[in-house]
Design a protein that fits this description.
Layout: H1 13-24, E1 40-50, E2 58-67, E3 77-87, E4 98-101, E5 111-114, H2 119-130, E6 133-135, E7 138-142, E8 155-157, E9 165-169, E10 173-177, E11 180-181, H3 187-197, E12 208-212, E13 218-225, E14 231-232, H4 233-243, H5 248-268, E15 272-274, H6 276-296, H7 304-319, E16 324-326, E17 338-340, E18 350-352, H8 363-366, H9 373-389, H10 395-413, H11 421-442, H12 448-458
Antiparallel strand pairs: 1-2, 2-3, 3-5, 3-11, 4-5, 6-7, 7-12, 8-9, 9-10, 10-13, 12-13, 14-17, 15-16, 17-18
């Protein structure tokens, strides 16, 4: 076990916690290695955010690598960020946060629990973010000379199903706490910072953030304004379906907003051209994901030849000299990544959030320039998802939304994404394949939703 600790606890810390983590970690929504045994841990860093004293709670920040043989590298040793509260006894209101009781090592006789659920410890994190600076391997920073972060803000965890954890402070801020972390800058910090510096008002600007600086750089958390009173785009779409009303106006507005964000990103960050070598690599990667997915979800097997044709078409166009412009994009755009209105915006203002990309994909891939139609394909799939949740299924609703969204995009961008049908189809197919694997692993009851798209896309061959 390697250990690079910035805490006064001895090297026995992680071995004493390992029996508890073996049980607790696989049950967490954000743990990516479900279904495979955990064979060990190694400690990347440990920091006492609130020191271990004889009395009173303590707060330990850990970066821990989880060993899971059988997974392809680097996933076989994913790194996770943990915030562990430590108390002699756990108050009743914190019982749901319990991780376990330590029986040996430096924490022997104490109770360890999920620190984010303790308001006192959660407020300590905000206090650290108020004052930029270093604490052991951690560094806290702020954006420009923005307003002072307010005090006396009660913290509460956001109870939503997601691959990370979030804390809301009062009605002022939301802190996204990245769980599975990768070396390098997370796009959910990098892209909103670039957009804020470019003056794009469609994305909440980061207020503050914190990172690990050694032994490798990791983005750990980002504090942003909490858009109090805003409405989630996914829920708005479902309400529209339930009421039997059109969602075309909203879809057209979302198309315009997507184009505005793409334009701002293209102005703020480098763009490249995808020529034959890059196009062949793109198509090959999509094909490889399809083959892997079909092995994991046998229901895909009958469709593989026809789905592969969509990727082969893109590769063939590249071989004939077709090139596409690529830039930084959202990477996981769907209705749930959009918000309408809010205390500081008009009722018709749309914002785009969560620029992390698809968390299951490697960070280097998520930071790679992509054609803008990748985001378009993600939103088109989202309209299908919404329509499929309604009983009876309403495919006409989805098709009208898809048309309105592309029209809105064309109004703002000056180019309709439907004029690149081969590339759009390839990205929509790749997204549907990703959805099939996700649903099969996490929500089997939802598997018919992406499988309906697979059936439709395969029929286009």
């Amino acid at each position: 076990m390697s250990e690079a600790a910035s805490t006064r606890t001895p090297v026995a810390l992680l071995p004493s916690l390992a029996p508890l983590l073996l049980t607790w970690l696989p049950r967490q929504r954000w743990f990516a290695g479900k279904g495979r045994p955990v064979t060990g841990f190694s400690l990347v860093s440990a920091t006492e955010l609130l020191p271990l004293e004889a009395t009173g709670p303590a707060l330990l920040h850990l970066l821990v690598r989880v060993q899971q043989p059988g997974l392809p590298a680097p996933s076989s040793q994913d790194c996770y960020q943990l915030l562990l509260g430590v108390r002699e006894t756990l108050p009743p209101h914190l019982a749901p946060a319990l991780i376990g009781h330590v029986t040996e090592g430096p924490l022997a006789g104490r109770t360890v629990y999920e620190g984010l659920y303790d308001p006192r410890l959660a407020e300590l994190i905000l206090e650290r973010l108020r004052t930029p600076g270093a604490l052991g391997p951690l560094r806290f920073d702020r954006f420009g000379k923005g307003p002072v972060i307010g005090g006396a803000l009660a913290a509460r965890p956001l109870e939503t199903e997601q691959s990370n954890s979030s804390l809301v402070y009062g009605d002022a801020y939301i802190l996204k706490f990245f769980r599975r972390v990768h070396p390098g800058t997370n796009p959910d910090l990098e892209l909103p910072l670039a957009l804020a510096r470019a003056g794009c008002g469609r994305v909440p600007a980061p207020v503050a953030w914190y990172e690990a600086t050694s032994p490798e750089p990791y983005t750990l958390g980002v504090l942003q304004p909490f858009l109090r009173g805003s409405q989630d785009g996914w829920l708005l779409a479902l309400d529209s379906l339930a009421r039997g009303r059109s969602f075309c106006e909203e879809a057209r507005a979302l198309g315009r907003v997507t184009a505005e964000v793409h334009t701002a990103l293209a102005d703020a960050l480098p763009t490249v051209m995808l020529r034959r070598p890059q196009t062949e690599h793109l198509a090959a990667a999509m094909t490889a994901r399809l083959d892997t997915a079909a092995q994991a979800v046998p229901a895909l097997l009958p469709y593989v030849p026809r789905l592969r044709a969509a990727f082969d078409t893109v590769a063939a166009l590249g071989a004939r000299g077709r090139a596409w412009r690529a830039q930084r994009v959202h990477g996981d755009l769907h209705l749930g990544q959009t918000l309408r209105g809010g205390a500081h915006h008009g009722a018709d203002h749309w914002s785009v959030i969560d620029f992390e990309g698809e968390p299951a994909r490697p960070l280097v891939e998520r930071r790679r320039p992509q054609p803008p139609v990748r985001d378009v394909a993600g939103m088109l799939r989202s309209f299908d998802y919404a329509a499929r949740t309604h009983r009876p299924w309403n495919p006409a609703w989805a098709e009208r939304c898809r048309t309105a969204y592309c029209e809105g995009y064309a109004e703002a961008a000056g180019a309709d994404p439907r004029t690149e049908p081969e590339l759009l189809r390839a990205y929509e197919t790749d997204k549907a394949v990703y959805e099939v694997v996700y649903e099969a692993r996490h929500r089997p009851d939802w598997l018919p939703v992406p499988m309906a798209a697979i059936d439709r896309l395969a029929a286009l061959s």
